[in-house]
Structures are given as structure tokens and as C-alpha cells.
User: Which sequence fits this backbone?
């Protein structure tokens, strides 16, 4: 089993507003990446468990929404591990855009 990809995204929205934005934003973000689709998205309190599919591979993980940051952890199959750095940068950028105060 591979080490998980972990991304922490700081925000100043508070937990409730960050969760509201994330609940509407994940599917939209995935729609912008043609090789990725969301198979499952399940919220329990401030944790979202998810399963995504990219390049025919399935990756599962969760994100925890806290008052000052969001922490995403996803375990990538071996094929997608080759794209881990690119994925990490893309997640960081998309997350910051979604969680920036407007």
C-alpha cells in the first residue's frame, strides 16, 4: 500500500462556510478535469469521504474541514502515484480558489 497524498489548505472562512463551499464545489471542480469523475461523495459531520476515478483508476480518501484549514488525504493507486505532485499542486490551487473569501 502506498503512502497517502496529503494536502492542507488554510482558510479564514470558518468551518460552516468552508463546508458549504466544498459541498457545492467538488463536483464542479471534477467537471473541469476531463479525465476525472466523482464516484462517491459522503458527508458525516465535518468529514467528507470520497471515491474518484481518473484514467481508469480508482482513488479513495477523505477531507476534514476545520475552522482554519481543510486537510485532504487520498490514497492513490500505483498508476496515479506518478502524477502525485501534479495532483497535489492542482488540489492546492483549486482548494485555495474555492476557499478564498469573496
Assistant:
Amino acid at each position: 500500500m502506498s503512502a497517502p497524498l496529503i494536502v492542507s489548505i488554510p482558510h479564514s472562512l470558518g468551518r460552516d462556510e468552508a463546508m458549504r463551499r466544498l459541498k457545492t464545489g467538488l463536483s464542479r471542480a471534477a467537471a473541469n478535469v476531463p479525465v476525472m469523475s466523482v464516484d462517491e461523495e459522503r458527508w458525516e459531520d465535518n468529514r467528507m469521504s470520497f471515491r474518484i476515478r481518473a484514467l481508469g483508476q480508482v482513488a479513495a480518501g477523505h477531507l476534514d474541514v476545520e475552522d482554519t484549514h481543510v486537510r485532504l488525504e487520498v490514497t492513490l493507486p500505483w498508476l496515479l502515484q506518478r502524477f502525485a505532485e501534479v495532483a497535489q499542486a492542482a488540489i492546492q490551487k483549486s482548494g485555495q480558489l474555492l476557499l478564498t473569501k469573496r
Observations:
- Residues 15-31 form the longest helix (17 residues).
- The chain has a mean pLDDT of 87.
- The two ends are 40 Å apart (CA to CA).
